[in-house]
Amino acid sequence: MVAIVLPDDYLGSFNDFVLMMLSFLIPWTAVNLVDFYLVRRGHYAVTAIFDPRGIYGRWSWRGLTAYVVGFAAMIPFFKTSFFTGPVADALDGADLSFVVGLLVGGALYAWLCRDLDLTAERAAERASAAELEGADAPLGM
Asked: Which of 11, 96, 102, 135 is most buried per CB count within 10 Å?
């Protein structure tokens, strides 16, 4: 019964779906990697991540901007069955969008974070660590 409603080129459609999902993840991955390895160097105030009024806030305009610009920069480089960007077309169908998304998203995020106040974040990190260590104490102590 299910086979009746499947498109004729199911595998091609599924492949396009998976490729688009990966494309949406590429600039997000770039932002996360740059944030972890270059900007904050692995130092986070874990409890503040869950506090919308905390040091990180509800949304990071820097991260969202880098993500959107990184994804938009990828579009001319896309090569799928339903869309071929002008740069991919000029390169005889070579899809280099993932490289562009990583480089543009990551570089823009690093540039936007150049004026972050990491000193305040370090204080929040110490407070978070103390709070988490206190949560590990046995009850009744």
From this structure: 102
